[in-house]
């Protein structure tokens, strides 16, 4: 027999078992143990009856679960939990309510309502501003601490609810997020509490910064900032600011607003400090010092508030301090950063590169500190312009004083050295690139005396290249400094004129310390100005090499007193002065002495001895034999003579001296060869015997009578003034005693007046050449364009000529070009188009 159902029970294998239907909840019921089951007997039928449905648990269990949980939550919120709490029972009740009775949503809502009730009960209802600062923040921190403790307990007891319901149900947040949200909503975002919190925060920060009051004093004792930091760190107010910030950081609540209050109270301190600084006209150094002290204080305080937060103290302080002091202190105090210190210079004549005095000694450390403050502010560009303008003013102040001309180039080289160092250290850029930072300002300062710096650079290089000590690393640096000055000046045409003249003299008179140095300098200038600029100098060097070769061959082939003859191409060399023309071609068959007699008669003012002329004629004939169809013109103003004489020392000993001197000086001394020892020769006789012009004769007599090496003694009339000026009534005699440590030396010649006159002539020639250059440029443009507007012509001429001419400013050059255009119209190179006054057309 087989049964499918028996009285509502299913049939199956196993023992018959009916569970007890007591009040025990299903989760607590015991499973049927194996021991209660009847063992299956072979061949027998076992009936197992299972109920098709079970009755629902009694309502009393659900109520008990709710009761225990509500009592627990109430005690938790009211801070009245019993000492002995069975957490396992609570967790079991939570699981039953969730799984059996499906009350997760109700339970979740109930817990949040209780938390809301608890927070509302704790919410402060008033704020007493007369209380100590920080008390209100502390009360809010305590409320948050309580809510945190609630959250920890709730998350532990209701872990299943948090994990299985909140995390898996859309729109439902975990307890931590919800409780933090309730705290923000009920406590922090309450309009009154929000206002009271920030009032208390402001009071706390004001209290913390009270120790900075020493910054309003002109001078503050050493260790003031350390004392201020220690005082503030010990204040309860700083602790409360820290607590509020950590609370806000944890809840992501109003962090920018807290930072604004922090910065606003900082600004209040800065305004007080800057107000006192401006009123008392403090120096830049004092303001920078106060900024750095204040910044160290803010770093310490902000670190105590939150060590992981990147506070923008430095940049904010820099902007605020500079907005209040830039115009009143920084602008006015730029002289403190780059002072004009030339009056305090010493050892002005040294050529030791590192000891060369500078016009200014910039304050590198102070400027670097100020630049660190300014570089992230809107004042950075203005500050850079201030420095550049100050450099311009300092250079202009020095160059404008003609008394400084003696030290002009050395001082400028020293200034370049200091400014290179200044820009390299302050702005952290290589020295090679720092040059471009201030070259325009430096150049504008030099242009205050247009042409003069370029002239002085050429003369300075001339003195360096004559100095036989000019070797080694030190001299290399000095030459580099001079070349850098050449790079800066705009009057390169003026430099070229003076350098060409000095180079020619060095090469002809053989006063250059080394031809290698000459070539090296030409190479450096070529890198700056291009090969076209130095091409003529290269050709001059080649002329000297060829001339030395011819001169050496002549001396080897002839017995001659002519030590060196310099043969150059006249078109390349800037020589002026008196010349002696010997036309050997017309007298090729005559004897040298006969030619010399005729040359002596035809040479004009200067009377050259017969034997000297014969030497020149003999060399001229030799040269004509090597280079036919060439005419030599001798420039005796550049000639030098080695004069041998016997002189007595102070000790009575007689010794021979070889003195190298200009030809005019030797002509004067050779007049005394025919005179008795100690015999006087009048000025008129010297003038007649030498044929020298009056100015040249007086200059040579001054050099021989009053120079560093005195070879003549001047005698004046009794009634005449006893100055160094040479009069026609004076007479002269050769000195008996000559003291000089060297056997062979060069006679120093007074050249001041000659140099001044020569400078004027050379400058006038360059200025004239500039006018012609402007005219040529304008004609080139007119010829190419045929018709052109006047303003367009001016701009094109400026673009064409600005690399070669002095440009004080574009307006000044435009005026020069307009004058040039009018001159071209007068010369019929151009004409105005009728009806269009601003239009020009080229006239072929």
From TrEMBL:
GO terms for biological process: ubiquitin-dependent protein catabolic process. Residues 14-44 are annotated as: Disordered. Residues 14-27 have a biased composition (Polar residues). SMART domains: CULLIN, Cullin_Nedd8. Residues 452-705 form the Cullin family profile domain. It comes from the Eukaryota. One of its GO terms (molecular function) is ubiquitin protein ligase binding. Belongs to the cullin family. This is Cullin-4B. It comes from Wallemia ichthyophaga (strain EXF-994 / CBS 113033).
């Amino acid at each position: 027999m087989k049964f499918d159902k028996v009285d509502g029970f299913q049939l199956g294998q196993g023992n018959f078992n009916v569970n007890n239907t007591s009040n025990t909840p299903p989760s607590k019921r015991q499973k049927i143990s194996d021991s209660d089951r009847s063992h299956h007997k072979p061949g027998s039928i076992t009936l197992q009856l299972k109920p098709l449905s079970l009755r629902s648990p009694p309502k009393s269990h659900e109520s008990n679960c709710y009761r225990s949980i509500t009592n627990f939550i109430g005690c938790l919120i009211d801070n009245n939990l019993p000492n002995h709490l069975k957490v396992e029972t609570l967790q079991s009740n939570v699981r039953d309510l969730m799984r059996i009775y499906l009350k997760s949503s109700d339970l979740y809502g109930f817990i949040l309502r209780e938390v809301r009730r608890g927070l509302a009960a704790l919410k402060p209802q008033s704020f007493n501003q007369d209380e100590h600062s920080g008390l209100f923040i502390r009360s809010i921190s305590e409320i948050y601490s309580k809510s945190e403790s609630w959250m920890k307990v709730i998350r532990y007891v209701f872990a299943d609810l948090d994990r299985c319901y909140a995390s898996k149900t859309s729109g439902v947040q975990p307890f931590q997020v919800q409780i933090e949200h309730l705290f923000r909503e009920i406590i922090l975002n309450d309009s009154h509490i929000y206002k009271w919190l920030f009032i208390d925060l402001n009071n706390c920060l004001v209290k913390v910064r009270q120790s900075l009051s020493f910054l309003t004093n002109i001078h503050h004792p050493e260790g003031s900032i350390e004392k201020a930091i220690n005082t503030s760190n010990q204040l309860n107010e700083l602790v409360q600011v820290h607590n509020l910030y950590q609370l806000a950081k944890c809840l992501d609540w109003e962090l920018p607003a807290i930072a604004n209050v922090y910065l606003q109270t900082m600004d209040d301190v800065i305004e007080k400090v800057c107000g006192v600084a401006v009123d008392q006209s403090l120096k830049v150094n004092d303001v920078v010092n106060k900024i750095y002290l204040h910044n160290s204080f803010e770093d310490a305080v902000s670190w105590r508030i939150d060590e992981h937060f990147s506070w923008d103290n430095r940049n904010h302080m820099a902007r605020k301090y500079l907005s209040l002091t830039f115009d009143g202190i920084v602008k006015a105090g730029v002289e403190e950063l780059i002072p004009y210190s030339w009056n305090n210079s010493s050892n002005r004549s040294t050529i030791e590169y590192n000891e060369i005095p500078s016009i200014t000694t910039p304050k590198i450390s102070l400027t670097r500190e100020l630049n660190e403050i300014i570089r992230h502010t809107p004042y950075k560009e203005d500050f850079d312009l201030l420095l550049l303008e100050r450099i311009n003013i300092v250079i202009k102040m020095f160059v404008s004083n003609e008394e400084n001309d003696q030290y002009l180039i050395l001082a400028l080289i020293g200034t370049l050295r200091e400014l290179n160092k200044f820009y390299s250290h302050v702005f952290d850029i290589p020295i090679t690139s720092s040059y471009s930072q201030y070259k325009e300002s430096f150049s504008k300062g030099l242009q205050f005396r247009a042409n003069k710096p370029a002239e002085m650079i050429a003369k300075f290089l001339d003195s360096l290249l004559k100095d036989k000590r000019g070797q080694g690393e030190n001299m290399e640096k000095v030459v580099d400094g001079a070349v850098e000055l050449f790079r800066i000046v705009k009057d390169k045409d003026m430099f070229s004129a003076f350098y060409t003249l000095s180079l020619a003299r060095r090469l002809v008179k053989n006063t250059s310390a080394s031809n290698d140095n000459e070539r090296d300098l030409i190479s450096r200038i070529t890198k700056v100005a291009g090969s076209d600029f130095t091409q003529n100098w290269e050709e001059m060097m080649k002329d000297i090499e060829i001339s030395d070769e011819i001169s050496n061959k002549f001396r080897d082939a002839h017995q001659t007193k002519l030590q060196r003859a310099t043969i150059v191409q006249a078109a390349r060399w800037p020589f002026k002065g008196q010349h002696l023309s010997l036309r050997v071609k017309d007298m090729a068959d005559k004897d040298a002495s006969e030619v010399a007699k005729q040359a002596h008669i035809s040479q004009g003012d200067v009377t050259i001895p017969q034997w000297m002329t014969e030497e020149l004629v003999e060399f001229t004939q030799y040269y004509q034999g090597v280079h036919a169809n060439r005419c030599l013109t001798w420039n005796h103003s550049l000639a030098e003579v080695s004069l041998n004489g016997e002189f007595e020392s102070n000790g009575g000993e007689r010794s021979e001296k070889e003195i190298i001197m200009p030809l005019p000086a030797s002509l004067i001394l050779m007049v005394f060869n025919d005179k008795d020892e100690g015999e006087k020769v009048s000025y008129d006789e010297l003038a007649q015997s030498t044929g020298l012009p009056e100015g040249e004769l007086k200059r040579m007599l001054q050099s021989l009578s009053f120079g560093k090496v005195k070879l003549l003694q001047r005698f004046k009339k009794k009634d005449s003034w006893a100055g160094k000026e040479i009069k026609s009534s004076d007479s002269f005699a050769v000195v008996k005693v000559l003291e000089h440590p060297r056997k062979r030396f060069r006679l120093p010649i007074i050249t001041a007046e000659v140099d001044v006159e020569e400078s004027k002539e050379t400058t006038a020639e360059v200025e004239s050449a500039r006018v012609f250059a402007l005219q040529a440029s304008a004609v080139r443009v007119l010829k190419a364009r045929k018709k052109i507007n006047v303003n367009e012509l001016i701009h094109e001429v400026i673009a064409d000529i600005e690399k070669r001419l002095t440009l004080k400013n574009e307006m000044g050059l435009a005026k020069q070009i307009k004058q040039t255009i009018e001159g071209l119209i007068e010369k019929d190179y151009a004409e105005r188009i009728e009806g269009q006054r601003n239009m020009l057309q080229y006239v072929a």
